[in-house]
Each structure stands twice: as structure tokens, then as C-alpha cells.
Amino acid sequence: MFFRGSLDKLVYPIIALVLLLIVSYRPKYRLRADMPSRFFSAANSSPEQKRGLEEKIAWAYWESAQMDVQWKYPYQHPLPPDPPPEFRIDALALGPAASDPATRALYWHRLQQVWYLPEAWDKEYEWDWGWASDPLIDGGQWLRNRTEKLFTVH
Length: 154
Fold this sequence. Notes:
Number of helices: 5
Largest sheet: 2 strands, antiparallel
Strand content: 5-15%
Number of domains: 1
């Protein structure tokens, strides 16, 4: 156990501060700015003019995933089978075919395919003090995530 001494008043706060800093410096995952090659395949496209439009549509859906979807379904959380309302693009800018339900479903399926790939995500460490608002809930969520990783196969 611990012995009472003159340095206890200095050592315990330093240990607490170090633990606080370790818990607060966490990795954050964000979708990469550049679209993964699996999300849009130029080989599946036809003529050059159509390929350019298809690539713009793919970029628009990738940007929708970056701006709207990754905040609702963060890293390693499963995506629902059907695209959420947030996953959409502007039909006026790219034409009515871009927002067609079949096209939207196609790019949602492609997003589901690349969602778990490490090359689709950037990992950055940053300070996160969000856990301090309710440490019990955050600690429970951390424990739940760790146990899910042990028993989930990807």
C-alpha cells in the first residue's frame, strides 16, 4: 500500500493529472477528404463524358458522407441497410439522374463497402474533454465498445 510521507501531497496530484491527460487525449476518426478508389470505379463507366458526370456524382455522395453521415454513424458503427435522409445530393447541380433513388442506393451500398476500410478514415489524436460531463456514462460506453471489439468479427 501507500506510505504516508512528505511527498504524498505532491505525488498524488501529479498521478491524477497524468491519468487525466491520458484519458483526455483520444483518437478521432474522420472520413478522408479524398474519395477511396472503391467508392468510384472509372472502369465501370462508359464514355468519357458520362464518366465525368458519374465521377462528379460520386464525389457529391462522398462529400455528403463526410458532411452528414459520419457524424450520425461514427467510425466502426454499422450503417443501416437503407440510406438515411441525410445522404443526398443536390439534383439541380448534377441533374435529376444524380438524385434518382437507384443512384442513391448504389452509392449507399458503395459507402457500406468502404465504411470499415482503414484507408477510408484519417486517425488524429486530439484533446477531448467530453467525457468529463458524465464520466460514468462515458466509461460505460468505453467498456461496451471494448467488449464489442473482442466479440465482433469484421
